[in-house]
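May I ask for an example protein's residues together with how it folds?

___
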Amino acid sequence: MYLEVRDLQKSYGRDASYIQVLKGITTGVERGQMCVIQGTSGSGKSTLLNCIGGLDTMDSGSIMVDGMEIAGMKPAALSDYRRDNLGFIFQFYNLVPNLTVRENVRVCEYLSKDPMDMGELLDTLGLIEHQNKFPSQLSGGQQQRCAIARALIKNPKLLLCDEPTGALDSNTSRDILALLERINEKYKTTMLIVTHNNSIKNMVHKVIVVKDGQIRKEYENEVRIPAAELEDL
């Protein structure tokens, strides 16, 4: 098992403001799988992703990624873990406005000892002709492609996606999901995709449904629907 989460618990606040967000999450994802973490707003799905990504500390439990324990890591070790293993894609693109597409991607290229080939990646993502444009000159879908390129240039083993199509229309969402699908097939990148969208679950290998801080259901799809054929995005 590439990712193993055991009895993960996370809370915020204290006394009257105390709230337990994750209540003993136990699950796992195999190497190379695309996995959806699905749930309504406030279910704990993004908190789970942030704990796996080392962006949030946990109260108790264990998170093993490729045999490495994340719980209890010091800040410097967590920084190394994120740099060496993870790529992040968010709903909002967080591009540097005064850098071109190529320059935005290069910022993360410098962080990797073994980056992907810039030209090949930009070509795969359909960004070659836009590489010298600034974010303000791009459509929403093109900006998200740039954000994906920035996350992938490090050649991450694990790609964490928090509502990656949340700010996009249905047609552009389908294009971005098809792109993630191709990346998974081409590079065998393990992916966790947090979403509230009910259709995306049909294209992935595994689905984890979170409600009120607990896993209510998890299963693997025997038949997957290609992203290009998804409806109601």
